[in-house]
């Protein structure tokens, strides 16, 4: 897990600037719907329990952005091991996330901060 973004005194945490758990949940719902419709990558999720995945994503993003949630899933290397995920797959998934953030009109700054937290996970996820 990345270290949560440090928050300067007097500046709201990314978690709160995003709109807290309800907003993060809404973005994750839209993100997963985008992935499910994305023929470049949806086959990876054919046997995945989607409600559990969404729960993990909400907790992961909540924790990483300074919220009270606790991520209880596997580390990114273990969770994606053996899937032969390429950089193109990774970029497709990020595109689906950006689309979800745009659907909810998340401002550029918050969008970039969130992507900045997730981007470094690429090295543990892309294995092909
Ligand atoms: C920054 C990018 C990504 C993040 C933050 C992320 C996050 C997660 C999380 C939190 C889980 C749940 C772990 C668990 O069950 O313990 C998960 C599972 C999974 N991820 Fe990712 N992921 C990313 C990229 C990708 C990509 C690019 C693919 C494939 C295109 C992918 C495919 C999967 C699949 C198939 C599962 C479910 C595994 C299962 O059913 O047990 N992920 N991911």
From TrEMBL:
CDD domains to which the protein is assigned, alphabetical: TrHb1_N (cd00454)
Enumerate the InterPro entries for this protein: Globin-like_sf, Globin/Proto, Hemoglobin_trunc, Hemoglobin_trunc_I
> Which cofactor does this sequence's record say it needs?
heme
Keyword Heme applies = yes
Keywords attached to this Swiss-Prot or TrEMBL record, sorted alphabetically, are: Heme, Iron, Metal-binding, Oxygen transport, Transport
Question: Does Metal-binding count among this protein's keywords?
Answer: yes
Coiled-coil intervals, chain numbering? none
According to its UniProt record, which protein family does this protein belong to? Belongs to the truncated hemoglobin family. Group I subfamily.
Protein known as: Group 1 truncated hemoglobin
Species for this entry: Tepidiforma bonchosmolovskayae
